[in-house]
């Protein structure tokens, strides 16, 4: 187990056990009535233990995704083509880390400490988004991430920002503003490659081919398989099902890719105008579950980088948390 200077505690466990014993039917009915009326639930309010548990799981995974999500693009900061692109990419990567901070704060309001969350990420207990376990091989990968993965994240977050838990919704609102700038920089880089030289178009097409399946996986397994959706939608934590979000994304972004003369690696992909739903070849869900359970091409590398960062940042955390020890530093 990683010994990064954090205590391996989960202070929410006792609280959860106590709440589970007190999930009284009248309280549950009043809670569900508030949700049905569209009220926000705030940290001090009564909530069922399962609502708290699910929110911690989902917000924590989201926070980890932002922090790990900075890594594939981060490797391109030193290699970005030109000063303007480099500046934009630095700002974007910095924003993603900021989103992680906002989300860890939101999850902490539910009683799980930041330390426990980081430990669960580093030990492999907590999940994070499948897409960040693939390598960003070329600059075109950065364009595809900035355009299509940010777009997919926005579809999900705009929906969830209207959900029931106040601190998560408020964090998502701010995140969505910033993500819309990320989308613009990704779209701009994407267009430049799509309208560039034949070599640039080929590079972009190759990146699209490699990223398409992870992007289809991004919204989670099909509704009939999704284990948490029903409860989370009933409690307005998730405001749309996985398949509905996937459909909304395809509706908005496939035409934008096709109008640039690029292709997507699925001959069955088409919109059924009669139903308004997109039809596609089912992506390989075995691959999805393998990747989210630690078996993707970059899982080990991603966690190793985070462990390195935790270890090498320990002295900073120590200095910030224990001001008295600073007196031992030589006077300037
Ligand atoms: N990756 O029952 P469901 C971003 C797991 S932020 C990994 O359908 P749920 C910004 C799920 O945890 C991206 N695991 O799950 C950025 C569960 O496993 P468990 C992150 C996944 O929660 C852009 C199992 O499968 N966004 O990109 C994934 O109801 C560019 C069963 O699935 C969020 O986290 C997945 N894709 O619905 C940064 C948004 N999908 O826990 C840098 C908040 C499912 O039982 C660069 N999250 N699983 O062991 C959500 O809205 C939901 O969690 C879903 C999944 C919709 C992702």
From TrEMBL:
Keyword Oxidoreductase listed: yes
Source organism: Chitinophaga eiseniae
Name this polypeptide is given: 1,2-phenylacetyl-CoA epoxidase subunit A
Listed InterPro entries: Aromatic_CoA_ox/epox, Ferritin-like, Ferritin-like_SF, PaaA, PaaA_PaaC
One example GO MF annotation: phenylacetyl-CoA 1,2-epoxidase activity
Biased composition (Basic and acidic residues): 10-26
Enzyme Commission identifier(s): 1.14.13.149
Pfam families per UniProt: PaaA_PaaC (PF05138)
NCBIfam families: PA_CoA_Oxy1
Start and end residues of each stretch annotated as Disordered: 1-26
PANTHER family attached to this UniProt entry: 1,2-PHENYLACETYL-COA EPOXIDASE, SUBUNIT A, PHENYLACETIC ACID DEGRADATION PROTEIN PAA
GO biological process: phenylacetate catabolic process
Keyword line: Oxidoreductase
GO CC aspect terms: cytosol
């Amino acid at each position: 187990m990683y010994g990064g200077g954090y205590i391996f505690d989960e202070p929410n466990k006792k609280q959860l056990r106590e709440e589970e014993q007190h999930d009284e039917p009248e309280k549950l009915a009043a809670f569900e009535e508030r949700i049905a009326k569209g009220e926000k639930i705030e940290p001090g309010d009564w909530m069922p233990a399962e609502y708290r548990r699910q929110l911690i799981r989902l917000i924590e995974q989201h926070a980890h995704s932002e922090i790990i999500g900075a890594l594939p693009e981060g490797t391109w900061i030193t290699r970005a083509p030109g000063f303007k692109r480099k500046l934009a990419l630095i700002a974007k990567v910095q924003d993603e880390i900021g989103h992680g901070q906002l989300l860890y704060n939101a999850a902490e309001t539910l009683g799980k400490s930041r330390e426990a969350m980081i430990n669960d990420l580093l030990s492999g207990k907590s999940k994070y988004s499948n897409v960040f376990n693939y390598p960003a091989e070329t600059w075109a990968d950065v364009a595809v991430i900035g355009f299509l993965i940010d777009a997919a994240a926005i579809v999900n977050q705009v929906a969830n920002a209207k959900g029931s838990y106040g601190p998560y919704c408020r964090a998502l609102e701010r995140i969505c503003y910033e993500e819309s700038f990320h989308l613009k920089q990704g779209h701009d880089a994407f267009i430049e490659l799509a309208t560039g030289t034949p070599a640039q178009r080929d590079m972009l097409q190759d990146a699209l081919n490699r990223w398409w399946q992870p992007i289809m996986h991004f919204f989670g397994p099909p509704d009939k398989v999704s284990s948490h959706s029903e409860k989370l939608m009933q409690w307005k934590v998730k405001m749309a099902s996985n398949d509905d979000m996937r459909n909304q994304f395809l509706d908005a972004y496939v035409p934008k890719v096709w109008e640039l003369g690029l292709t997507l690696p699925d001959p069955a992909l088409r919109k059924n105008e009669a139903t308004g739903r997109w039809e596609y070849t089912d992506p390989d869900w075995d691959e999805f579950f393998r990747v989210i359970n630690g078996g993707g091409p970059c899982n080990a590398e991603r966690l190793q980088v985070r462990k390195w960062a935790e270890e090498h940042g320990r002295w900073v955390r120590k200095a910030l948390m224990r001001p008295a020890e600073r007196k031992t530093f030589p006077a300037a």
